[in-house]
Design goal:
The chain is of the alpha/beta class. The protein folds into 4 domains: about 120 residues, 3-Layer(aba) Sandwich (Rossmann fold), CATH 3.40.50.2300; about 170 residues, P-loop containing nucleotide triphosphate hydrolases (Rossmann fold, 3-Layer(aba) Sandwich); about 70 residues, Helicase, Ruva Protein, domain 3 (Orthogonal Bundle); about 45 residues, Orthogonal Bundle (Arc Repressor Mutant, subunit A), CATH 1.10.10. The chain contains 23 helices and 14 strands. It has a 5-stranded parallel beta sheet with strand order 2-1-3-4-5, sandwiched between helices. It has a 5-stranded parallel beta sheet with strand order 7-10-13-6-14. The longest helix is centred in the last third of the chain and has 19 residues. InterPro entries: AAA+_ATPase, AAA_lid_NorR, CheY-like_superfamily, Homeodomain-like_sf, HTH_Fis, P-loop_NTPase, Sig_transdc_resp-reg_receiver, Sigma_54_int.
């Protein structure tokens, strides 16, 4: 990792500022943010006067008070040593080229493909930047080295953890990531706890990638999605002729995960007979296929997850206590999205970039009103609900700025507020609650894909228009 430096991000979109800042802070840099050109100019001037100048500035072209081109001209006149990277939308590329002629070091087109793309561009520019900027930033680095331990812990976060859907800007999420990073170095069994939709599989995948088993497979099994009659065969495999219909030998998930990680999601849904067999595998690290006599070594790391309160399930004799203690060697509780508000807008930016790229669309602007609605929503469906809301908004906004009405959140706030204080495993996490949440998300997604056309939506869902109307009323979903 390159040495930490002091950088400036200037963009009028809050979600983009948070996304850029988080991506660069994960590379170890200290990042200040400005919401318009004039504020950026004042921050640069103050930093120069205090002998702790910025090593690089990222500047959006379209900003209020002082546009990016004017800000660049000021910088070139007063602080020619300061490298500048211009951020621009597709339609502003000719202007970005003009910015290069005025002395910008590089320009990046929004939406950015990934945090890694941004960090690579910054590293390239810093590598050829005048040494004066880096040298003059040294006192600031020394001051940073004595700041609080929490800041230092966040900067130690592995940049690889920023890939895929694992975005962590809130201190609560960063603390969980630190636990994940530490346990990843071992072969210890991990139990991930949290409400439905918080991203347990994403965390499990991150632990696998950071572990010594990362070259092996990551095999995920949703224990609640498999019929009781099949789960034993799915986990342990079967020999040919073991039962009616077993025409060929089948390898189970334990064998498929050999050398890697086996992720057992919804572990609380396992039946008692399978719980007993799983306990034996955890104790002895061996198992037999159904219908077989040969003992097979279980060479995989186990990560289990549940949205149920397993302690309560043990008390109610619904889950074996000995299996619980075997699984809960290193429990990690992932907080619901409502308890990590600093993640909401960076996740929004991440999903917007992903879905815009997936659908071949330009990245739309998020209005301030929409950002407020996102921050204030209680998110009973957690990150999964946020992803669905963003995908819906991207479709409905049709390239225009995203407004609150595109998010479909207004009529769900009451529901969410009622659930806001519930912990995982309580009523909102029951099977019925999960199914209703999935049904509501599915209806919203299909509605969005059909432009809120009820007839097409009902046809695609395989229900009558009347049933759809009743569902919309039940879930308080309003269509255009």
């Amino acid at each position: 990792m390159e040495e930490p430096l002091k950088l400036l991000v200037a963009d009028d979109e809050e979600a983009m500022r948070l996304f850029l800042s988080a991506a660069l802070e994960r590379a170890g840099h200290r990042v200040d943010a400005a919401e318009d050109g004039q504020s950026a100019l004042e921050k640069i001037g103050a930093a120069e006067q205090s002998k702790a100048p910025y090593a690089l500035a990222l500047i959006d072209l379209q900003m209020p008070r002082l546009p990016g081109m004017d800000l660049l001209s000021h910088i070139r006149r007063q602080w020619p040593h300061l490298p500048v990277i211009i951020l621009t939308a597709h339609g502003s590329i000719p202007t970005a080229v003009e910015a290069m002629k005025l002395g910008a070091a590089d320009f990046l087109v929004k939406p950015l493909p990934s945090p890694g793309h941004l960090r690579e561009a910054v590293s390239r520019v810093l590598a050829v930047a005048p040494p004066s900027a880096k040298v003059s930033a040294q006192p600031e680095r020394e001051r940073l080295s004595t700041t609080n331990a929490g800041d230092r812990a966040l900067r130690r976060s592995n940049p690889e953890l920023a890939v895929n859907d694992l975005i962590a800007c809130d201190p609560a999420t960063c603390a969980v990531l630190e636990q994940a990073r530490l346990v990843a170095e071992t072969d210890t069994t991990v139990l991930l706890l949290g409400e439905s939709g918080v991203g347990k599989e994403v965390f499990a995948s991150a632990i696998h990638r950071l572990s010594k088993r990362s070259a092996g497979p990551f095999v995920a099994v949703n224990c609640a999605a498999l019929p009781a009659s099949l789960i034993e065969s799915e986990l342990f495999g079967h020999e040919r002729g073991a039962f009616t219909g077993a025409h060929v030998l089948k390898l189970g998930r334990f064998e498929q995960a050999a050398g890697g990680t086996l992720f057992l999601d919804e572990i609380g849904e396992l039946e008692a007979t399978v719980q007993a067999k799983l306990l034996r595998v955890l104790q002895e690290k061996r198992f037999e296929r159904i219908g077989g006599n040969r003992s097979i070594a279980a060479d995989c790391r186990i990560i289990a997850a549940t949205n149920r309160d397993l302690n309560a399930a043990v008390q109610e004799r619904l889950f074996r206590s000995d299996l619980y203690y075997r699984l809960a060697v290193f429990p990690i509780e992932i907080p619901p999205l409502r308890r990590r508000p600093a993640d909401i807008l960076p996740l929004t930016s991440h999903f917007l970039t992903r879905f815009a790229d997936k659908n071949g669309r330009d990245l739309p602007r998020l209005t301030e009103e929409a950002a407020v609605a996102l921050r204030e929503h209680p998110w009973p469906g957690n990150v999964r609900e946020l992803a669905n809301a963003i995908e819906r908004a991207l479709i409905l906004c049709a390239g225009r700025p995203i407004e609150p009405r595109h998010l479909g959140l207004v009529h769900r706030e009451t529901d969410g507020a009622a659930q806001g204080g519930r912990a995982y495993g309580e009523p909102d996490s029951t099977d019925d609650g999960i199914l209703k949440q999935q049904e509501r998300d599915t209806i919203l997604r299909v509605l969005a894909a059909n432009g809120d056309n009820r007839q097409k939506t009902a046809q695609q869902l395989g229900i009558s228009v009347r049933t759809l109307r009743n569902k919309l009323k039940e879930y308080r979903i309003q269509t255009n």
